[in-house]
Amino acid sequence: MSSVLGRYATPFITGLFIVSLISGIALFFHIGPSGFHGMHEWLSMLLILPFALHLWKNWRPFLTHFKRAPMGIALAVSVLISLPFLLPSGQQGAGGPPPFAFSHMILANPASDVAPLLGMTPQDLVARLTAAGIAIETPSQPIREAIAASGKPEMQAIAAIVRPAD
Predict the structure, then answer these.
(1) Into how many domains does the chain fold?
(2) Is 44 within 8 Å of 95 (Cβ atoms)?
(3) With 60 as the cut, is the pLDDT of residue 15 above it?
(4) What is the residue-wise DSSP string for 140-160?
(5) pTM for this structure?
(6) I need a labelling partner for 68 at 20 to 30 A (CA). Which of 21, 42, 147, 164 fits?
(7) d(Cα 27, Cα 21) in Å, to the nearest integer?
């Protein structure tokens, strides 16, 4: 069994890396089907297994890299170039992909302002959110505030708001 896993570790690393590479490029440029997001996340997680098998199979040769400067330099540079992504950007509100940032901005408004944009009354919008476990005190309360008070995820509120009418 070990030899079978050893023989397939590198080919699976290669195949899954290519999938991750293509889907990552598509996500970066906001092109391709929406399935790229899930594909990229899940198959990148799956990539961990053949990577671990590859390390296990090649452990001794791998350790020799740590005896030379290029490994230390590469690891240090990798950490340094990743740090700016962890620093606050100074922007208020949510970032991320434009649709998420847009929906986050919409939810900052009260139900009375958002409802007409969706072709419903404020009472209908409040009823949908209440049915989803998000209590809004008045239609003038910002939706985001009600979501935070409910402890529910924002995506649950959005799903309740945009679901087709019964």
Answers:
(1) 2
(2) no
(3) yes
(4) TSBHHHHHHHHT--HHHHHHH
(5) 0.50
(6) 21
(7) 10
